[in-house]
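Lay summary. Proteins are chains of building blocks that fold into shapes, and those shapes determine what they do. In this project we predict the shape from the chain. Here is one chain we studied, written as its sequence of building blocks.
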Amino acid sequence: MNDSIKSRGFSLIEILIALVILSISLLALAALMVTTTQNNSFGGHLTEASTFAQDKLEELRAGSWVTITPGSDLIPHPNGINYSRIWNVATNGNLKTITMTVNWNDQTSHSINFLSVISQ
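And here is the predicted shape, written in a compact code that computers can read:
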């Protein structure tokens, strides 16, 4: 009689509760993966925007001091996102201050700004 009262496995209720807990935790992990993928994508876009801004700043520095003028351009990218660069130039004596802004849109609008000073 003692042997028949002892449990020799899991009951159906215990298995169902374990499955519910497992499914909730797997759903939480799936949501975490989506967030991680979005953050990685944003980081990649931010890196590309920084590179585009630095490229233009180096191009302006490599030219003559007189040819540093305000402007803008559009950079289409193979990933489907268009980056726009706008640079403003303010002259103060022998110094030119360049403010570079790169904008892009990937579900939401983003912008990054750089500031550089070049002397004559």
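What the prediction tells us: The first helix runs from residue 2 to 5.
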